[in-house]
Structures are given as C-alpha cells and as structure tokens.
Write a structure and sequence with these properties.
The protein has about 150 residues and is α+β, with helices and mostly antiparallel strands. It contains five helices and four strands, in the order βαββαβααα. Strands 2-3-1-4 form a four-stranded antiparallel β-sheet, with helices on both faces.
C-alpha cells in the first residue's frame, strides 16, 4: 500500500513438543540458518535467533504483510520436515502448539538481541518455564496456566 510505513519488531518464543531436549549442538546452527532462510524468504529481517535444546527464541524485523500465526506455522512445519529429512533426530521432532510473540521498540533491539544470544548462560540461572512465565507477566499477557506449554518437573 502506498505511503504505508512500519517498523515492527517481534520476539517469538516456542518450545519443542513435550519440552523434550531434542535440539542438539551438532545441528542447531544448521536449524537456525534454515529458519533464517524461511524468515527472510517471507520478507522479514532476522535480527537474532538462538535455540536451546527444548525451545527457541527468534527476533525479527516484522513484515506486516504476513500474519504472525502464519509465519510461526511456516517455521514450525518447515523445520519439522527439515529435521526429519536431514535425519538430525532419532525421535519424532515437532514443536508444541502455541507460541509467545512479544513486540519491542527499536530502542530495545540490541538489548533483546543480547538476551537471545546469551540464552545458554541465562538458563544456568533460570529455567525455561520461569523465563517464559516472566515474559508473560512482564508484557502483562493474560494467560491460563492450563494452556501454557507443557512443563514437566
């Protein structure tokens, strides 16, 4: 649309099905590169990405011509096939239903980017469950505990 200008930054977070630690270091970079290609092919800009064994964080400069649920669905279904085709995981790999999507201002991009890049150190101090629930509270997202990711103790 003519004369339409946007600047949108979205931080996506989603988990491996059943919160299984299936993303392994030997192939995590290839998975992240593949996701970067998906994001960029749909006209978004990849700003930061980091996967942990049981979840992933993605920060994108968001193209408003695509719905966020559609972007997440493309990432999830494509990577499920990718992991299976490449034989990375001896188990059935898939993502849990649902995701978190949090908006940020331009001034927060470097802070959020560093936060995503430092996930490994961050998770030495805080579990993914605590981190995710903290994000929901910080962004004042109303949620029903029954529908948050499957967290197993």
């Amino acid at each position: 649309m003519a004369n339409t200008y946007t600047q949108l930054y979205i931080h996506l977070v989603f988990a491996v099905r059943n919160r299984e630690a299936l993303i392994k270091k030997p192939w995590k970079n290839e998975l992240e590169s593949y996701i970067t290609g998906i994001v960029q092919n749909y006209g978004h800009k990849m700003l930061a990405i980091n996967s942990m064994p049981d979840h992933i964080h993605i920060l994108v400069g968001y193209n408003q011509n695509m719905l966020i649920p559609d972007l997440v669905e493309h990432i999830k279904t494509s990577t499920n096939r990718f992991v299976k085709t490449k034989g990375f995981c001896p188990y059935t790999f898939s993502w849990q239903k649902g995701y978190g999507a949090f908006s940020h201002s331009r001034s927060q991009i470097s802070i959020v980017g560093r936060y995503i890049e430092n996930q490994e150190a961050h998770h030495r101090k805080k579990s993914f469950q605590d981190e995710y629930l903290e994000l929901l509270r910080k962004f004042e997202v109303d949620y029903d505990q029954r529908y948050v990711f499957d967290f197993f103790d």
